[in-house]
Design goal:
24% of the residues lie in helices and 30% in strands. It is of the alpha+beta class and 353 residues long. The structure holds 2-OXO-4-methylpentanoic acid.
Length: 353
C-alpha cells in the first residue's frame, strides 16, 4: 500500500527541549488509516495533525472499543534516530486488537508506516538528556451506532509527542498507596490488553491516592485482593533477598516491554529473577525481616520508577533508605544507554529508522 503525504501549510515552532513534560505537545503530522469490511485496512496517509471529525453516535465514544500503544524514538549523540523494540509494541497492539474484537493490522506495514512518519518528523525528536519522541498508535471504533456489538469500521492513527520525564518526580522515588477497595482488572477481563477501559478503571483509586499525598496506586488482584498485579500504569518489581521478583503474567497484567527488558537484563547480569504470584503479605513480611531491598515500576513512559514509600492499611513502610536503590539505578542506566546508543545493543532491541 502506498502512503500518501498531504503537506502542512505551516510548520509549528519547535519547543525548548529542556522544558519538556509529558504528552502536552504534538508534532505537525499524523498517520491515518481506515478499516471497513469490504476494503479491510486501507488508505494509509500522512496528514497534518488535527481533529478527527466524528458523529456524536460514534461507537468508541459510547462503548470504549479502542486500543493503543506507547513507544519511543530516541536521538543518539551522533544524531541518528532509533526506535526501542517497535516490533514488540506492534505485536502487542495486535494482541490487544484481538481482545477488543478489532481487526488486526499488518505488522510489517505498520512498522514501515511509523518509520516513514518519524522520518518526516525527525526535527521533532528532541536532543536534551532524558527526552524522546513518544509515539502513540491508536485504533478507535467508528460506526455511528448505539447497539452494543463490535464496530464494523475503524480508524487507525498515530500521533507523536516530544516528551521529557513522565512523573514530576523524574527518576526520584514515588510514594505508593495499596488499595483494597478498587481493582484495575479482573481474571478473564481486559487487563492484559492496552485499552482505555483499564486506564479509566484506574482513575478513582488514583485520585484517592493523590488526595492522600501518594503518587500511584498499587493494584491487587481482582479476585482475592491479595496478590500484587501492577503499580499505577506500570508493571512492578521487587528486590527481595537479592532476587528480582515480579508478578507472573496471568491475563490481567499488561505484558510490558520494559518489564521484559528488565527480566532479560537481570538474567544477563546473573541475578536471580523470578516471575511468580506474589502476595502483598509476603512483601510486608519481607520488609519486617529486613529482606525487602527495593520496589520499582517499569513502563515505556517512565522507564524505571523507584518506590520510596508504600502504605498498606495503616502500615507505612519506607523502602530501602527511601532513595533510589542500586538495582533500579543500574536498570535505568542500562536501558536508557541502549535506547540512546551509548552502549551496545546486545539484545537487538534497537531499530534504526
Ligand atoms: C507507560 O508506562 O508507558 C504507560 O503505560 C503509561 C502511558 C499510558 C502514559
Amino acid at each position: 500500500m502506498q502512503i500518501n503525504i498531504t503537506k502542512a501549510q505551516q510548520l509549528k515552532p519547535l519547543p525548548d527541549d529542556s522544558g519538556l513534560g509529558f504528552g502536552t505537545l504534538f508534532t505537525d503530522y499524523m498517520l491515518n488509516m481506515d478499516y471497513d469490511p469490504e476494503n479491510r485496512w486501507h488508505n494509509p496517509r500522512i496528514e497534518p495533525y488535527g481533529p478527527i471529525q466524528m458523529d456524536p453516535s460514534t461507537m468508541v465514544l459510547h462503548y470504549g472499543q479502542a486500543i493503543f500503544e506507547g513507544l519511543k524514538a530516541f536521538r543518539t549523540e551522533s544524531g541518528d534516530i532509533r526506535l526501542f523494540r517497535p516490533k514488540d509494541n506492534i505485536r502487542r497492539f495486535n494482541t490487544s486488537a484481538r481482545a477488543l474484537c478489532i481487526p488486526e493490522l499488518d505488522e510489517q506495514f505498520v512498522l514501515k508506516a511509523i518509520k516513514k512518519l518519524i522520518r518526516l518528523e525527525q526535527r521533532w525528536v528532541p536532543k536534551a538528556a532524558g527526552t524522546s519522541l513518544y509515539i502513540r498508535p491508536t485504533v478507535i471504533a467508528m460506526d455511528p451506532f448505539l447497539g452494543v456489538r463490535a464496530s464494523h469500521t475503524y480508524r487507525y492513527f498515530v500521533i507523536l509527542s516530544p516528551v521529557g520525564a513522565y512523573y514530576a518526580e523524574g527518576f526520584n522515588p514515588v510514594k505508593i498507596w495499596v488499595t483494597r477497595d478498587h481493582v484495575r482488572a479482573v481474571r478473564g477481563g481486559l487487563g492484559e490488553a492496552k485499552t482505555p477501559a483499564n486506564y479509566a478503571a484506574s482513575l478513582y483509586a488514583g485520585e484517592e491516592a493523590h488526595r492522600n499525598s501518594y503518587t500511584q496506586v498499587l493494584w491487587l488482584d481482582g479476585v482475592e485482593q491479595k496478590y500484587i498485579e501492577e503499580v499505577g500504569s506500570m508493571n512492578i518489581f521487587f528486590v527481595i533477598d537479592d532476587e528480582i521478583v515480579t508478578p507472573a503474567l496471568n491475563g490481567s497484567i499488561l505484558p510490558g516491554i520494559t518489564r521484559d527488558s528488565v527480566i532479560a537484563l537481570g538474567k544477563a547480569w546473573n541475578m536471580r529473577v523470578s516471575e511468580k504470584k506474589i502476595a502483598i503479605d509476603e512483601v510486608m513480611a519481607a520488609h519486617e525481616n529486613g529482606k525487602l531491598q527495593e520496589i520499582f515500576g517499569s513502563g515505556t513512559a517512565a522507564v524505571i520508577s523507584p518506590v520510596g514509600e508504600l502504605k498498606y492499611g495503616d502500615k507505612v513502610i519506607r523502602i530501602g533508605n527511601g532513595g533510589v536503590g542500586p538495582v533500579a539505578d543500574k536498570l535505568f542506566k542500562a536501558i536508557t544507554d541502549i535506547q540512546y546508543g551509548k552502549s551496545e545493543d546486545l539484545f537487538g532491541w534497537v531499530e534504526k529508522i
